[in-house]
């Protein structure tokens, strides 16, 4: 058997692909790809309609910088490392560059391809402005910029102190968005030197923190997080194995809502699931989907897509996505032994789980509807606002909880 580092990594990558193939099949059977395709088509239609009547004062460069920033600064790295590797592979640390080389190449190619696609989609909007530089030249300028971000992300992974890594990541993203804004708003002969100066300053600053030669713990933690996110995504469609403990976030700006529950026996499971949602990654997903739904509703509403119905549909689409993600809450604590230790009935657990899903989805729907109403009501689109006020609560309070209740009953009968 070939025990070279490249062969071991290849075996782990193959094992991961074989493990996830069935989950992709279940995801395809759920109709989720069709929903995503419909959402993308709706977004394209709205974008094309917006391009036909871009407001004269629209911040084209600022929007372009904000849209391109994640794809330019994001540098994924799939290492397939596990905790045991700190014992069995650490003696071979000198050869680990060969282990990471395929991952680095794949990460740069993936994020670079996404960056190119998003930039090409942005070009029609860019050409509506002053066009300080030809867009092919800007595309070429983004290539070394992307390479510099990949180098910066790897250097941050090597930093010994997590706080230093977070600080330099924030600085890199801030510098990236400033250089992007300059590239999109100033002539290239002015913005290029600014970008080179920012890169040189960051490169000099990156020499200051102490670094590991090879960041074993950081890469293992990152790999664990990637697997956990994939499992959580697949868990919305089919039962998947639990991959380690759930990551916990403080979110003090939200956890007070769970603390407001009355301290009594009937609220035990409600407090458990509310706290689980608010302090785990699932809560972050719900929060981001809600904010993105609000932003999309405002943008499509201002563009008057389909006379305002586009904003209603966009908001509903994000509410549907939020409802799908909330389905993963049923997997939390499902196999916990403490459920069978404390004298709490199973029916109370399901009722509390349904209540948390219902009211969280209702709150998310309310925020999205307020964005729709604030955008469409001043324009006199009262029928659209009323339709959203009817459709959003029906899904949040009736349709999604009903389907979730049937899912819980099916799981109970299966157990």
UniProtKB/TrEMBL annotation:
Bilayer-crossing regions: 32-51, 63-82, 103-122, 134-155, 167-185, 191-208, 309-330, 351-376, 382-399
Gene Ontology annotations for the cellular component aspect, listed alphabetically: membrane
The entry's keywords: Membrane, Transmembrane, Transmembrane helix
The organism's place on the tree of life at top rank: Bacteria
Keyword Plastid among record annotations: no
Keyword Cytoplasm (UniProt): no
Family annotation (InterPro entries): EcsB_ABC
Annotated protein name in UniProt: ABC transporter permease
Species name: Paenibacillus darwinianus
């Amino acid at each position: 058997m070939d025990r070279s580092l490249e062969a071991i990594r290849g075996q782990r990558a193959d094992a991961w692909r074989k493990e996830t193939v069935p989950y992709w099949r279940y995801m395809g059977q759920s109709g989720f790809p069709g929903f995503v395709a419909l959402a993308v088509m709706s977004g394209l239609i709205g974008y094309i309609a917006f391009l036909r009547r871009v407001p004269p004062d629209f911040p084209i460069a600022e929007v372009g910088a904000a849209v391109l920033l994640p794809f330019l600064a994001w540098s994924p790295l799939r290492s397939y490392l596990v905790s045991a590797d700190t014992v069995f592979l650490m003696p071979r640390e000198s050869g680990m560059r060969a282990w990471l080389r395929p991952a680095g190449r794949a990460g740069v190619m993936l994020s670079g391809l996404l960056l190119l696609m998003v930039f090409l989609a942005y070009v029609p909007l860019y050409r509506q402005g002053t066009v300080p530089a030809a867009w092919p030249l800007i595309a070429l300028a983004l290539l070394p910029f992307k390479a510099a971000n990949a180098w910066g992300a790897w250097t941050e992974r090597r930093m010994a102190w997590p706080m230093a890594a977070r600080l330099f990541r924030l600085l890199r993203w801030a510098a990236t968005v400033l250089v992007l804004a300059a590239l999109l708003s100033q002539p290239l002969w002015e913005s290029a030197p600014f970008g080179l100066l920012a890169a040189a300053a960051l490169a000099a600053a990156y020499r200051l923190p102490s670094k590991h030669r090879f960041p074993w713990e950081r890469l293992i933690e990152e790999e664990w997080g990637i697997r956990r996110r994939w499992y959580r995504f697949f868990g919305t469609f089919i039962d998947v194995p639990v991959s380690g403990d759930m990551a916990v976030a403080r979110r003090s700006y939200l956890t007070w809502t769970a603390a407001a529950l009355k301290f009594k026996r009937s609220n035990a499971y409600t407090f458990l699931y509310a706290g689980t949602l608010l302090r785990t990654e699932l809560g972050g997903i719900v929060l981001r989907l809600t904010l993105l739904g609000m932003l999309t509703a405002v943008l499509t509403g201002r563009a008057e897509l389909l006379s305002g119905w586009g904003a209603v549909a966009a908001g509903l689409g994000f509410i549907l996505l939020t409802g799908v993600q909330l389905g993963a809450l049923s997997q939390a604590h499902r196999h916990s032994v403490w459920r069978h230790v404390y004298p709490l009935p199973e029916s109370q657990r399901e009722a509390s789980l349904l209540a948390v899903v219902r009211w969280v989805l209702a709150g998310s729907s309310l925020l999205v509807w307020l964005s729709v109403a604030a955008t469409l009501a001043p324009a006199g689109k009262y029928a659209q606002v009323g339709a959203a006020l009817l459709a959003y609560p029906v899904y949040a309070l009736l349709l999604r909880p009903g389907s979730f209740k049937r899912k819980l009953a099916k799981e109970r009968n299966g157990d």
